[in-house]
Design brief:
Layout lengths: L10 H28 L5 H25 L4 H12 L1
Helix pairs in contact: 2-3
Length: 85
């Protein structure tokens, strides 16, 4: 029987990692779907670029919310188009 010595685990770091996985799971699945459908590249750089594009779309949504009150149909279509790309 193999005896393994006690192992110390930083539970705070473990929870941070687990919560990060849960928090980013949807975005990562969206990226994987995009790679499969569009035939893109599955690289760290491409994923970082995708995250930056998502942040830009979020910032645009917040600007539309603040400056235009409720979005009109043209702004909604622009948002959908930007989100799809």
């Amino acid at each position: 029987m193999l005896i393994v010595p006690n192992t110390c685990v930083d539970l705070q770091e473990l929870f941070v990692i687990i919560l990060g996985l849960v928090d980013n799971f949807r975005t990562f699945v969206e990226y994987l779907t995009l790679v499969i459908v569009e035939g893109g590249q599955l690289t760290d750089d491409a994923y970082e670029k995708y995250l930056k594009e998502c942040e830009e779309v979020q910032k645009n949504m917040e600007k539309w919310d603040v400056h235009e009150g409720n979005m009109d149909m043209k702004a909604m279509m622009k948002f959908v188009y930007l989100h799809i790309l």
